[in-house]
Automatic annotation (TrEMBL):
InterPro entries: Daa-tRNA_deacyls_DTD, DTD-like_sf. Belongs to the DTD family. It catalyses: a D-aminoacyl-tRNA + H2O = a tRNA + a D-alpha-amino acid + H(+); glycyl-tRNA(Ala) + H2O = tRNA(Ala) + glycine + H(+). It holds the Pfam family Tyr_Deacylase. Keywords: Cytoplasm, Hydrolase, RNA-binding, tRNA-binding. This is D-aminoacyl-tRNA deacylase. It comes from Bacteroides reticulotermitis. It is found in: Cytoplasm. GO terms for molecular function: D-tyrosyl-tRNA(Tyr) deacylase activity; Gly-tRNA(Ala) deacylase activity; Ser(Gly)-tRNA(Ala) hydrolase activity; tRNA binding. One of its GO terms (cellular component) is cytoplasm. Its EC number is 3.1.1.96, 3.1.1.-.
Amino acid sequence: MRIVIQRVSHASVTINGQCKAAIQKGLLILVGIEEADTPEDIEWLCKKAINLRIFDDENGVMNKSVKDIEGEILAISQFTLHASTKKGNRPSYIKAAGPAIAIPLYKQFCQELSRALGKAIGTGEFGADMKVELLNDGPVTICIDSKNKE
């Protein structure tokens, strides 16, 4: 499982012209799921995301987590995070999990994030054509892959 975390001042996701979710200060998390992912990957990544100290403290040092600042989270499924570009110019998405595997894992990831944060998070809609808007704060963007824990 791969996630891309962006520290944002605000972010939103729109589907068919309707705003599905919007957040203020917090994290936009793009979530890529592959066939080999397990609940252990979810647990590890959720702990990392919730506890990642990328928000400024009173001294202007990145020393606070999204939970510490009582921030918000928007989690968007994004199969393209597993794109392979080794051959040619057209990406292959063969490593990305199909809906039967990815949807339950995405939902579980979102539920675990919400539980760990202590409040509801915003989500996209799996498989939908989504328009994601954000104001990256910093900019701070961090990529984490559960297959590279060590």
